[in-house]
Amino acid sequence: MRYSSLLLLLIALPLRAQPERATLEGTVRDVYGTPLAGVNVVLVGTLYGAATDAAGRYLIANIPPGTYTVRASAVGYVPAEQTVTLTPGAHRRLDFALVPTVIEAPEVVVTAARRAQPLEQVPISLSVLSLADVTARGLFTLDDALRYIPGVQMTGNQVNIRGSSGFTYNAGSRVLLLIDGFPMLSPDADGVPFELLPIAQIDRIEVLKGPGSALYGSGALGGVIQVVTRDFPEQPETEVRLSGGAYEPVRHEEWRAHWEGARHWRPFGTAIFTHARRLSDRLGGWIHLTYLRDTGHLNFSERTMLQGYTKLRWQPAAGARVVVLSGLTWRRNDSFLYWNGLRDPLNPGSIPTTGARDAVGANDTQSLQWTLLPAFTHAPGHSFFYTIGGRLYVLALRPLDEQGRPKPLSKGTLGFRYGGQLQLDWQPAEGRYLTFGASADAVATRSSFFPSEDGHPFRSQPEVAVFGQWEEALTARWRLTGGLRFDAYQIRADRWITRLSPRTNVLFQARPGLTLHAAFGLGFRVPGVAERYIENQEFFPIVANPDLRPETSTGYEVGLRYRYRAGLLAELNGTLALFWTDYRDLVEPRFQAERLAFQFVNLTRARIRGLETTLDVRLLGGWLEGMLGYTLLDAKDLTGPEPLPLSFRSRHLLKTSLTMMLPSHLALGADLRVASRPERIDTEFARFVPDAEVTVPVRVLDLRLRWQVSSLTLTFLVKNALDYYYVERPALLAPPRHFQLQLQWHL
Amino acid sequence: MLLAGCDGGLAPPPPSPLAVIEGTVYYNGPWPHPDSVRELRFVAMRFVPQSTQELLLRFNEIERSDTLRRFVDSDTFRVVIDLEGVAADTFRYSGIAWKFGPNPFDWRPLVVYDRPLILRPGERRPIVLEADFRNPASFPGSP
Q1: What are A233-249's pLDDT values in tens digits?
Q2: Cβ-contact A428, A383 below 8 angstroms
Q3: Which B residues 108-137 touch A at CB under 8 Å?
Q4: Which H helix or E strand runs over A439?
Q5: CB contact B2 to A (< 8 Å)
Q6: pTM listed for this prediction
């Protein structure tokens, strides 16, 4: 292609334009107005022609007079032809706008099911958010990104996949976070560390819905979030991303009266620098630096974060590679715990009975987090490879005193989560794929919130597991998957908890573009150190319960995935899933009158069933793109004699998105998410926090306008454009309308 | 978008009719050691508590002042009560609550107002209390 372009250029080079000859020039752009380089423009049936430069311009001179058909062509675009008549000495201009062809899109490859496979072959519901989706929406943290995924609802900082989590006051997570396949829940509260991501170097975020314990063990009770980071490119890449914005002052005078900050715009900003390159023929990697500053939309909700991440890949020999991902995050932030009532929701409330003079609904901390994820992969043969990986997650968290100075670490938390795993992938025959492995992990945490026992300041919870998975393509249309995992957790020196988690999946390709699947799986979650041992009177009266039992789930799902293409006009991808999950022994915080405090207890027997459908539409070669995701939940608490709605779950959840390409390199987009008001919330919280029982539906509209030219992208975003005031979890007002401008410079 | 535009979401509740309890407490006799006087507040309860436990269980039925000054001869307090939707509110048990220890439930009554307080919207009720740490009140349910 390059050679032919060069040949055409050489042929077209004039020695001198003769007066009786004509000249033709013009520009070639795509339908969105972006200049196209390297497009061949030829006069059909002659040797006259040229290729466009970086600005999309072409020039063909010394053309004999006559009538010609001019053809512009490039890979990925529909060739365009125009007829032109050139008179002697004429200098004509002829511009082209090429329409992209619908090239068969590369298969979306996902890895959440423990091995890379095309999305169409994954026999369970799964949603994918790409880096482009994250960047287009100006997102910097995982929780913000998850808000745009169908079937996922954030309850404060807890992830609900199809209603799995509810709200348990930030302790424990029923959703497992994996970074490049390694579990990464925090060592202090077993929570999802939302800011612990190199956001500009992620390739995609995969959300696997439904029990995933057969694949990943405890924590994957309600689903799995897999964040896949990028590899380094062949050519060096540098990106600078600057983003700034502000929260709009709240419109209610009564709220402003209680906090001066609410009368002013509250700024926030982020600066990201990334650089990726090959360092030698065997080594390459990237570095990612982030600075984030957010003054917060609530009093005492400021945060500052500095983060550095790097990923190196070294190929010591053919068929072998070593990958090391490591990151350091320093964070200083106020955690706004609960408001001071609906008359004063911008200030933290207080519970005077706790007795502490600084016992307000906010907790100021400074933390340092370090992660190290090394992995070695070796492929001794064409059909077999193994991966040995390790992980280390260190957290040092110190509370701040009234002057903002960090208190000693002994007053805070020091936590370690570490472990390793071996996984073997073997494809003994076409259509058969076996995965086996073993893992060992441990958490060791010393915290002022966890009283020491027998002189051992560190609370620990080691675990070991073995797992296996067999995939078999029974025929060209039927694919069967079976998996089994055995986990053993040591919760005390003399007590182990063991669990066997099977799963089975069937996939049937009814016809090209239509697959049906059925899935069954067991899930479990061992309560974390925080839930079992937390003792606190400073912020909330809460006492330990070391005897908590694991939560368990049994999940079923049937679903279909379809794809339809109508040439250039339309491309449509859709899913439909019906799911049913029974939960037992869900851990919930309850006020224990005899203990005069809250305590995590095994309480709830629950059933969550429902349906979920998604529809992705791409019209006119990408001129218009839309997404719709709807989830209907029937979530019931079966603990009592009569079924009750399960608390903190919305019955209806709707996510929609629309993106439209405009002339002049502009793209306009909107995202709307709607969640119905929870039918029931936990009233225990409202004993102490005023108006904690107040909820409204969630109705949030985000708007974005992007202007992209060459390597520069400018995005203007309006989040919560309708300035709708709502809560995602009790007693915490979500951000009001805020504006954001993002500049992205890609070299 | 139409759905989202229906209303503006959460808003402050409409203004409520208020009532005010204002008062002064005089301290007689010596003050105990500072470790034994962690905090003092005026509280007005809609019920008669039998124990500390009940204070926590019925926390939302208690109106309370800010923390009072310690080691003074006297101090003033003020409690504003929201009487939205009610013609009158009755506080059966009120007085100065004394936090005597480090634990969250180390509270006891120091001095109790000798009659129920019945407040109507717009009403301002001044009261005077005399406290003596050598002779504190006790919970009605206590021996």
Answers
A1: 878 899 999 999 999 99
A2: yes
A3: none
A4: strand A432-447
A5: no
A6: 0.78
